């Protein structure tokens, strides 16, 4: 330590000394390795993806530069257009439902009762499981003839459903799995928010005669909104690029009823080997995610301002 | 499994006998120089399954015979295809020998020029045993292995015929005869369906892409041909519409609910649970059906050929082979391995375990080998009968995967009530430009 402390000022002094020949700044050796890694792992793949998207690039055939032709194909490709719709529906549902259930669960688990710690532990277990393993278990549960879900429905007198085996119910059924797995995450985030709320507002609300719902609606909800936004953003980014659960359960089927952009992208690039077109989809997909995240951030900032405003 | 009728000893004895024959002054035939490439190391990339198992289980015998070291890995089919294609396209594959699926990869591999030509090796008596001749492979096998110029680019390894599996117990219970035609099959399936009891007349693949392998059985038997003379696709014509109507009837009226999402696995589950009376699928599923640990219908399964359609009777055929990477530096050694893998000994083991059906007639028709088959005699009969009516089950084009996805999705959507003709038309409007692009490239 001592040695280093002595050496560095000396080196700096020689660097700055006038009249001496120029030497590269001494920080370069420290910056370059990180720079190389960033360029190689982040910048290069991106530039290369964009380059591929401007070419007709099929594995096994020579590549030719085609400009924006791959992008022009997108709006006329019914499978892509449908995939965008599926992605939006899937994402919207798998953000909203965990948010609603997660908030509810957080409020329940925030109250003090016997065995709370243990039950909290049990509740977050789905989050810890591997998505593909979960998907296989749910596939069996969804089975219209042999699955347990239809058996449970029959116990309460409801008719059997086709779940993931019908185009009309496949996306809600997949969202059910997502919701089951990711509600605990939302709960954990919101629990953190609840713990940070002071008790005074509730006390004064009680004195004013507010009911439980009113307290939730006008005190709890506004105060946990920033946490809900964070949870929503994490969920959204996760849901929009969800792949494992859909692929393992339906592979985008029946037909292409649950094919999201990510699944279609996978098929185009790695099953049809159309890397150029696949790259174009990847670029558009990335822009979509960035746009969604930007919207969320913007909304969050706006709510933060109104909150401070209303809180003051 | 272990009690195979052809042992290493008989193989060696056979080899010795051939050697003795040449000594006794029979037509001077050169002997295969098995040891010539001793010390070479080969890399093999296999698709996961009974064929790969069969090769890996006995690979020590090959090393003993030739002195060639073999490193092989089995990768699940889809990933294996991806890995192989990407490596071959790079020009520097990490493997010498590749296990390929003809019905998916034939045209793509030919167009890429990725496989070495074996025609010369097959004519070289120093490299090829006298019993390995082109004419021993079935017609479908040769069609798969040869390119337009007649070069052998691979050795056909195992063929997959589609057959009709049926549940004898359910048939007896309802007093139904085994159907010989599609019309009879529909009538039988209706009689066998008892939704209250949860039993259904028919089950089969409904899942997009996978379903094409079932559908083409109908398409071919309605007189369909995949391609016209100029390479244009014909799977939206009247034959295709009729085939789709049959498919729609069977899978919506007499099949278990949710069949639109079934692949072979779910179909097999329904069949082995005794919930479905008929199932059309690949011939390789007999071992699990006859396995008491996996099936409730052991000993009750009937096996027969796919029923006839109005325009003929064909069994949609798929298959896999072994090829040598054109970029390999050990082609002759690799050829010896391919040859050993499709040899009579290895083929017999494959057939006897029910893990696959060799393309070689000399294996299939050998009474000694037939005796050792562990599956019921009816199964073997269905295999031999299917071989006689075999026809390629998918068009030989590059974008096979897109074809299966697009047309498969159209066919699946008819299960939710869509009109067959309209769906097929829509799918082909999307597919035709893809096919044109791939042929132009």
Provide a descriptive summary of the structure in words.
The complex is a heterodimer of chains A (312) and B (441). With 312 residues, chain A is mostly helical. Chain A has 2 domains: 2-53, no CATH class; 71-311, MetI-like fold (Orthogonal Bundle). Chain A is 73% helix and 1% strand. Chain A has helices spanning 2-16, 28-53, 69-73, 78-110, 116-123, 125-128, 131-142, 148-155, 170-196, 200-207, 212-240, 244-249, 261-271, 275-311, and strands at 55-56, 64-65. Chain A has a two-stranded antiparallel sheet with strand order 1-2. In chain A, a hairpin with a 7-residue loop joins strand 1 and strand 2. The longest helix of chain A is centred in the C-terminal third of the chain and has 37 residues, at 275-311. Chain A starts with a helix and ends with a helix. With 441 residues, chain B is an alpha/beta fold. Chain B folds into 2 domains: 8-159 and 318-382, D-Maltodextrin-Binding Protein, domain 2 (3-Layer(aba) Sandwich); 161-316 and 392-440, Periplasmic binding protein-like II (D-Maltodextrin-Binding Protein, domain 2, 3-Layer(aba) Sandwich), CATH 3.40.190. In chain B, strands 1, 2, 3, 4, 5, 6, 7, 8, 9 and 10 form a 10-stranded mixed β-sheet that branches. Chain B is globular and about 65 Å long. The relative contact order of chain B is 0.17. At the A-B interface, helix 13 of A face helix 4, helix 5, helix 12, helix 19 and helix 20 of B.
């Amino acid at each position: 330590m001592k040695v280093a402390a002595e050496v560095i000022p000396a080196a700096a002094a020689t660097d700055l000394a006038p009249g001496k020949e120029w030497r590269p700044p001494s920080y370069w050796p420290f910056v370059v390795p990180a720079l190389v890694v960033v360029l190689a792992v982040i910048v290069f793949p991106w530039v290369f993806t964009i380059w591929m998207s401007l070419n007709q690039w099929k594995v096994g055939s020579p590549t030719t530069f085609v400009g924006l032709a791959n992008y022009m194909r997108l709006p006329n490709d019914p499978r892509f257009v449908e995939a965008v719709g599926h992605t939006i529906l899937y994402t919207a549902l798998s953000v909203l439902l965990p948010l609603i259930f997660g908030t509810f669960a957080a409020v329940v688990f925030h109250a003090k009762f016997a065995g709370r710690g243990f039950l909290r532990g049990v509740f977050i277990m789905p989050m810890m499981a591997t998505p593909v393993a979960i998907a296989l278990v749910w596939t069996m549960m969804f089975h219209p003839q042999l699955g347990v879900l239809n058996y449970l429905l029959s116990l309460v007198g409801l008719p059997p459903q086709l779940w993931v085996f019908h185009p009309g119910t496949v996306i809600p059924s997949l969202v059910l799995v997502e919701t089951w797995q990711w509600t605990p995450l939302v709960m954990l985030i919101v629990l953190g928010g609840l713990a940070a709320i002071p008790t005074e507002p509730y006390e004064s609300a009680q004195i004013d005669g507010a009911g439980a719902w009113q307290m939730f609606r006008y005190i709890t909800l506004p105060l946990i909104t920033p946490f809900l936004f964070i949870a929503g953003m994490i969920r959204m980014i996760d849901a929009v690029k969800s792949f494992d659960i859909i692929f393992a359960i339906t592979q985008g089927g029946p037909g292409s009823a649950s094919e999201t952009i990510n699944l279609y992208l996978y098929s185009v690039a790695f099953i049809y080997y159309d890397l150029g077109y696949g790259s174009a989809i990847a670029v558009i997909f990335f822009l979509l995610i960035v746009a969604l995240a930007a919207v969320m951030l913007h909304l969050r900032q706006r709510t933060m301002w109104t909150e401070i405003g209303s809180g003051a | 499994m272990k009690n195979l009728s052809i042992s290493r000893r008989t193989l060696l004895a056979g080899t010795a006998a051939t050697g003795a024959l040449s000594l006794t002054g029979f037509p001077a035939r050169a002997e295969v120089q098995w040891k010539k490439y001793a010390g070479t190391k080969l890399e093999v990339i296999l698709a996961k399954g009974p064929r790969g198992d069969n090769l890996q289980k006995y690979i020590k015998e090959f090393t003993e015979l030739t002195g060639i070291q073999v490193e092989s890995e089995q990768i699940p089919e889809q990933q294996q295809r991806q890995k192989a294609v990407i490596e071959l396209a790079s020009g520097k594959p990490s493997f010498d020998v590749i296990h390929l699926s003809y019905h998916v990869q034939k045209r793509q591999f030919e167009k890429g020029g990725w496989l070495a030509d074996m025609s010369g090796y097959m004519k070289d008596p120093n490299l090829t045993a006298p019993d390995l001749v082109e004419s021993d492979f079935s017609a479908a096998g040769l069609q798969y292995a040869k390119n337009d110029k007649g070069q052998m680019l691979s050795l056909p390894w195992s063929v997959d015929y589609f057959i009709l599996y049926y549940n004898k117990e359910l048939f007896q219970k309802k007093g139904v005869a085994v159907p010989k035609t599609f019309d009879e099959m529909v009538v039988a399936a209706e009689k066998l369906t008892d939704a209250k009891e949860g039993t259904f007349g028919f089950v089969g693949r409904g899942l997009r892409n996978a379903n094409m392998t079932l559908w083409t059985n109908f398409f071919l038997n309605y007189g369909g041909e995949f391609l016209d003379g100029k390479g244009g696709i014909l799977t939206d014509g009247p034959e295709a519409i009729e085939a789709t109507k049959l498919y729609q009837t069977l899978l919506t009226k007499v099949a278990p609910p949710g069949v639109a999402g079934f692949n072979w696995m779910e179909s097999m589950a329904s069949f082995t649970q005794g919930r479905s009376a008929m199932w059309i699928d690949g011939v390789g599923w007999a071992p699990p059906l006859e396995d008491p640990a996996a099936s409730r219908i052991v000993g009750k399964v009937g096996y027969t050929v796919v029923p006839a359609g109005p325009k003929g009777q064909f069994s949609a055929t798929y298959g896999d082979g072994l090829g040598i990477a054109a970029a390999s530096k050990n082609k002759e050694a690799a050829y010896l391995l391919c040859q050993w893998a499709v040899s009579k000994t290895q083929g017999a083991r494959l057939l006897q375990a029910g893990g696959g059906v060799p393309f070689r007639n000399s294996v299939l028709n050998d009474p000694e080998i037939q005796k050792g088959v562990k599956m019921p005699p009816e199964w073997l009969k269905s295999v031999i009968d299917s071989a006689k009516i075999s026809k390629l089950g998918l068009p030989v084009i590059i974008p096979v995967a897109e074809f299966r996805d697009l047309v498969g999705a159209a066919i699946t959507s008819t299960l939710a009530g869509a009109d067959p003709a309209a769906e097929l038309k829509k799918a082909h409007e999307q597919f035709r430009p893809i096919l044109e692009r791939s042929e132009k490239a």
